[in-house]
Design a protein that fits this description.
Layout lengths: L1 H13 L21 E3 L6 E3 L6 E3 L2 H9 L7 E3 L1 H6 L19 E3 L7 H6 L4 E4 L7 H8 L4 E3 L9 H11 L3 H21 L7 E9 L2 E5 L5 H8 L3 E2 L1 H5 L6 E4 L11 E5 L7 H4 L2 H4 L2 H5 L2 E3 L6 H6 L3 H19 L3
Parallel strand pairs: 3-6, 4-5, 6-7, 8-10, 8-12, 12-13
Antiparallel strand pairs: 1-2, 8-9, 9-11
Helix pairs in contact: 1-14, 2-6, 6-7, 7-14
């Protein structure tokens, strides 16, 4: 409900139409527009005129646009997002925010269809969380329109910074600040309402398979930032392993090192959970024996909402995860 109120308030204040960046902060057309330049890992983006047709390369970038009252000209999709959303690539917190008939354009991280993006005729492209953005791809996209993107690597810049960068690029600075403030208030409320989180250690166990599991291994990963924002701490063991992009692959023989106050299992689907539950290495963990385990599958949306955070996804997900985490933490 909170995310709905946030979006309605922002959209009403912005009076936006699909892809349009006019608002009370700016005036229609180019009147009052001053050139805006944003930094990026592959080059600066200079927006000389007010964006009217904005293409988002990822769901998270679309979220940040929606959060400041801009409706992207297309729904970005890829096989993973289609699989998690029943083929729509629209997550629960985005439902009702795209006008009926908004086209879906594939934005694959492995083979980006540049021609399909160009066909939407964008005057701004946003990719702060798009993993398929390389220097060559950036160069091709920049020939179509300015590309607002990350300063470090995809989905590694703090979500607050990315939201404000995008807001500045579309002339919605005040809306960006308001969206960030609303999300921060939600996270702070979640923490204050759940003092049991304070100082509790956790591990996130992701995509179990016959070969092993993936784990969160950095508090500087966006998922790690959110969880530490709740007052919890990633286990020392998880932070000690070789880490790449905030995640590490762990073989089953190392499972005994994964104990913590709370374990969060994130299978791709519910059918993957037996890969954990059938193994004594998992069932013998003290946290598992205490029942201090939270299971949230990827299709439920919460893992994506927190691992690829935006003002909209955080407001939606916080209240959905907190009760489960609180119940598990009480068993630690």
């Amino acid at each position: 409900m909170a995310v709905t109120f946030l979006v309605i308030a922002l959209l009403l204040s912005a009076c936006s139409t699909s892809g349009t960046a006019s608002s009370p902060e700016t005036t229609p057309g180019d009147a009052g527009w001053s050139s805006v330049t944003t930094t990026g890992a592959f080059g600066d983006a200079t927006i000389e005129s007010r964006p009217e047709r904005v293409f988002a390369l990822s769901t998270t970038d679309a979220d940040m646009l929606l959060a400041v009252g801009i409706v992207p000209i297309a729904v970005p999709s890829m096989p993973q997002t289609d699989a998690a959303t029943g083929g729509t690539s629209i997550y629960p917190w985005q439902v009702g925010l795209y006008p009926e008939g908004t086209p879906k354009v594939e934005a694959s991280t492995t083979e980006l269809n540049i021609e399909a993006i160009a066909a939407t005729d964008p005057d701004l492209i946003v990719g702060t969380a798009f993993f398929g953005l390389t220097k060559p791809i950036y160069g091709k996209l920049a020939e179509i329109a300015p590309v607002v993107h990350y300063d470090t690597v995809a989905n590694s810049d703090d979500w607050r910074d990315s939201t404000r960068k995008i807001a500045r690029a579309v002339g919605r600075v005040d809306a960006g600040d308001a969206a960030v403030a609303t999300a921060e208030a939600t996270l702070a409320k979640t923490r204050s309402n759940n003092p049991i989180f304070e100082g509790k250690t956790f591990n996130a166990v992701i995509s179990p398979s016959a070969d092993g599991v993936w784990i969160l291994c950095s508090e500087q990963d966006n998922l790690g930032r959110v969880m530490t924002g709740f007052g919890m701490k990633l286990s020392e063991y998880a932070q000690s392993v070789e880490c790449d992009g905030g995640k590490a692959e762990l073989s089953w023989e190392n499972m005994s090192d994964l104990d913590a106050d709370v374990l969060w299992a994130i299978p791709d689907t519910a059918d993957q959970m037996p890969e954990l539950t059938k193994r004594k290495l998992w069932t013998s963990l003290p946290a598992v024996q205490r029942g201090a385990v939270v299971i949230v599958t990827k299709p439920e949306g919460v893992p994506f909402a927190l691992a690829f955070p935006s003002p909209l996804s955080l407001v939606w997900a916080a209240d959905r995860l907190a009760p489960k985490m609180s119940e598990a933490a009480a068993r630690s």
